[in-house]
From TrEMBL:
This is ABC-type sugar transport system substrate-binding protein. It is found in: Cell envelope. Residues 329-349 have a biased composition (Acidic residues). Keywords: Signal, Sugar transport, Transport.
Length: 349
């Protein structure tokens, strides 16, 4: 099984030409293709962005997309998928509500002979046609490393962690990432609790922790930006601008808060890339074309050091060669200015 690892929206143009398997299907025109899309919870800002990107890509390609929102209910997601399969979709895209709870939809699609593309989050049954998304543990590792190495916190400082819904891929993977980089041992973790990806629940949790732990609480580490922004609101309301807060997703207001200096880090996962590429792969599968079994879109930390580049040039400006080229150009400019200044001083002497 080959993995394809790509950056940002490059996925959209690359996935169809770098496949490693093909799905038996009759030749179809785009106008004849019907894609089912089961989203886990579009009240989540990031998930909604994936869904929006999927709908935009389907419109661009001229295919029909049937969008169903499970609203955070795994039983509804299973029912939604049954409905979509009964409607005769040519491929099914699923953002799993639960790693194990959503697993039955894979068998349902296989039994119906419909290609199933798992988008954004892991699922317990890996007999799907293809996966498109990020590796959740990677985001936990990047977030954890930033708090350990770049936040200015000291070993043994008291921190709290706000998690996503227990058992979801993001919660499981990001906590595994924290463990992998030693975050749970490096800091004194005084509290860990879920806020279900919700901003208001995270704000209430943070308010309680700020009251309970007072000045000893140095940071709140959040598994997504919606919860991070809720924690930030609580800290600001309490006059605790010293509490360091960071999260995952690259939400617009979180990125702006990084620029403003009130939010430490937002680990970007490319919602547009995941939504659009999921539809691309589904369409290719419906046509019987070669597709990649596993397409991974890397996470990118947005910090005070690269936030301006991101706001100016988007994800490609902080990804791979583009980011390195920009850094090299900055270094060359600095070196050139230094040499020019030295020459001027020498001439003056």
């Amino acid at each position: 099984m080959k993995k394809q690892i790509i950056g940002g929206l490059l996925a959209v143009s690359m996935v169809a030409s770098m496949g490693t398997m093909s799905v038996a299907a009759a030749e179809k025109d785009n106008a004849d293709i019907k894609i089912g899309f089961s989203s886990k919870d579009n009240s989540d800002t990031f998930v909604a962005a994936i869904a929006d990107a999927a709908e935009a890509r389907a419109k661009e390609l001229g295919v029909e997309l049937l969008m169903y929102d499970a609203g955070g209910d795994v039983n509804k997601q299973i029912s939604d998928c049954e409905t979509l399969l009964a409607a005769g979709v040519d491929a099914l895209v699923v953002i799993p509500q639960s790693v194990e709870g959503s697993a039955p939809v894979v068998g349902m699609a296989n039994d119906a002979g419909v290609p199933i593309i798992v988008d954004n989050g892991d699922i317990g049954d890996t007999n799907y046609t293809a996966f498109v998304g990020c590796t959740d543990q990677e985001s936990g590792e990047l977030l954890g490393k930033w708090f350990i190495e770049e936040s200015g916190l000291k070993e043994g400082d008291k921190v709290a962690i706000i998690e996503g819904p227990m058992g979801q891929s993001g919660q499981v993977g990001r906590m595994a990432g924290f463990e992998e980089v030693g975050l749970l041992d490096y800091f004194d973790v005084v509290a860990t609790q879920t806020a279900n990806w919700k901003r208001d629940e995270a704000m209430a949790l943070a308010e309680d922790w700020i009251t309970t732990y007072g000045e000893d609480l140095k940071a709140i580490i959040c598994e997504n930006d919606d919860m991070g922004m809720g924690a930030l609101s609580a800290a600001q309301a309490a006059g605790r601008d010293d509490i360091i807060i960071g999260g995952v997703d690259g939400l617009e207001d979180a990125v702006q808060a990084v620029k403003d200096g009130t939010y430490g880090v937002s680990v970007l996962q490319d919602s547009a890339g995941q939504g659009a590429t999921g539809v691309d792969v589904a369409v290719a599968a419906a046509k019987g074309e070669e597709i990649a079994k596993d397409t991974r879109i890397p996470f990118r930390p947005i910090t005070k050091d690269n936030v301006d580049a991101y706001l100016e040039g988007g994800v490609e400006a902080i990804s791979g060669d583009a980011a390195e080229t920009k850094e090299e150009a900055a270094e060359e400019t600095t070196e050139g200015e230094t040499e020019e200044k030295a020459a001027e001083e020498e001439a003056a002497e």
